[in-house]
Amino acid sequence: MHHAASPIGIFDSGIGGLSVLQALRHELPREHLVYVADSGHAPYGERDEAFVQQRTSAIAHHLRAQYGIKALVIACNTATAAAVEQLRREMPDLTLIGVEPALKPASLSSQTHHVGVMATRGTVSSARFARLLSEHSQNTKFEVQACDGLARAIELATELPPAADMQATDLWERCAKHTQALGSFGLKTGEIDTLVLGCTHYLFVKDELRALLGPDVQLIDTGAPVARQVRRLLAQTDMLAPEDQSAPQIQLFATGGLSSLQAAAQRWLDLPAGHCAHIEIA
Ligand code: DGL
Q1: Is 76 in the active site?
Q2: Domains of the chain and any CATH numbers
Q3: Ligand 1 atom closest to Cα of 119?
Q4: Which entry of 43, 69, 131, 157 is 20 to 30 Å from 189 by CA?
């Protein structure tokens, strides 16, 4: 059984969900957090839906059984698209929060009514994404790019020391290729003025994207709004961490190799490698 002092579970195929964990830490600094990077089965974006559903269900069961989580954040657009509805049916009593590409905020804030979306192939080919796109396409033209290989390249690059010349990296080339495929960016009529980061990994290439697209293009990710939604849902059920919970624990697990999780935790969250451990989830 869970209670207000129980941890929040978070998972992704890899390090991408750390961008959501970062926002959760900021919004809910007292909460205990247990994170699973399913790196032994990544990337999800190029797997079929049944596989991602099966992994999502296995991880949710594990986090409930082993850690008594009070809520689960699917910090992965691909897994949300493939599995959130199934998991809601399977665990109707679990407080469940998914992430999806921020098409609505993008369409509300775009001045040129022209928006780019970068996401995995799994996300952009899902029925859930097709619905989202049709709901928000009345006043906005969306350009959508399936960024095969980008999440994996971000994982690999995280293990290397930060590059002296950003423009000489594989990540730069990939970001350049994907953004060029979307069209021309800028504030003039017809140009794309807003880019939706529809995969949680992509926040970790925001410097590359910013340098490629210039300072005027808006980059939209979902970390902060998802963290606020978690707060709202926990508050509704009186499940926010008690006021005196002053030393929150953050545990990070990976089902495959640990190195990119350790490097990302250190680099992005300032958490030493001791927070990371291997986990088996069959
Ligand atoms: N971070 C994940 C997402 O938000 C997917 C990365 C992958 O392909 O595994 O879609």
Answers
A1: yes
A2: 8-99+223-278 (3.40.50.1860), 103-220 (3.40.50.1860)
A3: 10
A4: 131
